[in-house]
Amino acid sequence: MNQVILVGRICTDPEIVTTEEGRQRSVITVAINRPFKNMEGIYETDFIRCVLWNNIALNTFEYCHTGDIIGIKGRLQTRNYENEEKIKKYISEVIAEKVTFLSSSNKNLEKERSE
User: Fold this and answer.
1) Rounded Cα distance, 98 and 84, in Å
2) How many domains does the chain have?
3) Rounded to two decimals, what is the model's pTM?
4) Which structural domain, as residue segments, surrounds residue 105?
5) Sign of the C-alpha dihedral, residues 102, 46, 67, 13?
6) Is the distance from CB of 46 to CB of 27 less than 8 angstroms?
7) Buried b / exposed e along 38-56 (16+ C-beta atoms within 10 A)
8) Who's near 115: CB < 8 A, 6+ residues apart?
9) Is residue 112 pLDDT above 90, yes or no?
10) 3-state SS assignment for residue 63
């Protein structure tokens, strides 16, 4: 079974790209704090690349911004490509199957929702 569940903060505002096939895609990075301190007594953060497709991508683009906390349920995928120097590179990323909006860092948006 290949299932990943993440909760973290969006690092940059989501952007939408339309593929040649007409599908909408958004690639976001989610910052996730580790639950333990390193040898220097500091909590480290992992930055996880997540790919969102179609309605998930569009909704996240419309409602989420930098600093918002989201939950992602998906699967881990690894792919490879050759760079300009003909060196094979590998990328691991989470393909989102569900995104849950947990909190917004946008105070104006929170105010509008409460009115």
Assistant:
1) 35
2) 1
3) 0.82
4) 4-114
5) negative
6) no
7) eeeeeeeeeebebbbeeeb
8) none
9) no
10) helix
CATH number for 78: 2.40.50.140
* φ, ψ for residue 92, nearest 5 deg: -105, 135
User: Which class for 2: exposed (0-12), middle (13-18), buried (19 or more C-beta within 10 A)?
Assistant: exposed
Query: Which of 34, 18, 15, 35 has its CA nearest to residue 26?
Result: 15
d(CA 51, CA 44): 23
pLDDT in tens, 5-49: 999 999 999 999 999 999 999 999 999 999 999 999 999 999 999
**Two tokens, residue 40:** 């220097």
User: What does the alpha-carbon distance between residue 25 and residue 53 come to, in Å, rounded to a whole number?
Assistant: 5
